[in-house]
Sequence to fold (586 residues):
Amino acid sequence: MGDQKYLNNLGHSCAHLLAKAVKDLWPGTNNAIGPSIENGFYQDFDFGTVKINEADFPKIEEKMRRILPTWTHFTFNEVSLAEAKELFKENPYKIELAEEFAKGGKKLLTNDPGNFLDLCKMGHVENPAKEMQHFKLLSIAGAYWRGSEKNKMLTRIYGTCWPTKKELDHYIWQQEEAKKRDNRKLGKELELFTISEEVGPGLILWLPNGTIIREEVEKFGKKVEADYGYQRVVTPHITKEGLYIKSGHLPYYAADMFPPMEYEGQRYYVRPMNCPHMHMIYQFKTRSYKEFPIRYAEFGTVYRHEDSGTLLGLLRVRGHTTNDAHIYCSDDKQVIEELVSVLEMHEYYYKIFGIKDYYVELALPDFIKKKDKYFNNPPAWKKAIKLLREAAKISKIKVVEQEGNAAFYGPKFDFNIKSVIGREFGASTNQLDFGSGKRFNLTFADKNSKEKIVPYIIHRAPLGSLERFIGFLIEHYAGAFPIWLAPVQVKVLPITDRNLEYANKVFNELRVNELRVELDDRSETLQAKIRDAQMEKVPYMLIVGDKEEAADKVAVRTRGSADLGQASLEKITSEIKDKIANKVID
RNA sequence: GCCCUCUUAGCUUAGUGGUAAAGCAGCGGUAUCGUAAACCGCAAACGUCAGUUCGAUUCUGACAGAGGGCUCCA
Fold:
């Protein structure tokens, strides 16, 4: 196994090989960038008017293999901007990059394996012919030049390259395995959710099994929030335009909102976020300093106009329900305490759900590149950032600071989790808002009966949205949910129809114990019943035949094991209830 | 939204310029079986709208939906 740096060099070198092969096959094609990425590399091309697709891969791969033996080593050179412009005069992408790097004071470097000169940042293998033999082209995609929708759409070819054939095969196998966990695939197979063309893309229809999981997660969230002193509220899904003018969302957020509707001469929006509604609840009455901090929580459903191409099962949708809450703080001390407690809550959730692969980002504003994106109040920003850093320090949570990702009204902690398929996405966001108090004129009476503006509001959603979170859980558990979440917790399997009466007795006993239990009373073979229960990933199977009936017992099988032998129903019931109560992950 | 690919029964797939095959699921029977698929039968589909054609599920186009991607820099 090579280390990551070596794998990066391998992928990056292979991108050059791909570029050379493509340029040989389609003269006139310009190659743009070709970096290594996790598990491989990509190379962007401008094919002009030529269209290629995955059917061309064998041809390209063959060409690569033909070129590879001639690449025994790379030769490097430093060039001047003028030289670079001459060398790459036919390639506008390279020229743009060269000019930019020269301006940024970076050295301009080129490499050449003998027959293919390229502008390059370095990082290659020493002997390509020898080291680069195990590659495979994976997919083709469109990608904007420099990632901006305003630029030209280039053609991106993804590939992977490994030191040995074994590692290449292993990677391909791993990808196949990952696909089996895809939330869309399992969502269908386990009957968790569906998306109807007639209802619309990105709008989730929760099936009975999925609804059980959703409601269990919701119930758990409500319990935790109750323990942390939150009060629950409920607000409507639409609102008049004026509220978003007041909040400041309209100019910053319009592109993400569904178009408004007219009603009784007023414009109404389907809400893309809950905050302004909650602030209206704050304003319901005169507030006293004694009430603080005020914590309002709501599972609030919002709708956002996500681009159609970005939708992804439960992971990216147009309607979702956030595990939202707003904490109104009257001073800095409360802000720190509440932030620390919110971070603690995250860790508790992640422990319960068994989520280990995550990191926390401290999203800061970028006043240089995106000046117009933020409330213009530098001292307030500075102070807010200080408070977040302080809270992170107390929590002993490692945060990665990232400029440019802040909300328009404040900096935030974003928790990013990684699905087994390798998709990384924001799981939760915790924002420190120093602007809305003033905008909404949220006031309270202080000790001296003086009216004050709420200085800080914490927006937090540790579970993110139920849609995305459950989408993540589906992939995380590969559909085998911990028993407290499993739609069906126990299945009773009678061996013959003779055993139906006893099976019913067992079934009813489990129901009385408030377990989610099903009785498979079909006239099927035991093997078939077991197979179906396994496919449904039911945690416990209780098998009852003549022997169990005679002994007044049940034969136990779990989804992860073979036959566990007989046990009394009381014993197994209490074992199951215990696992549910403790939210055990098996 | 943009680039490429795709759309056949509830699901997974086969196939054709003369309206289509199968497995699983479903329904009706038969079998009553000991830890991952019993047997027989029945019913059920070419995404939508145009165009080409004697004739289109098949070819072309548009639309809709789905899938792989879209600043990890030379």
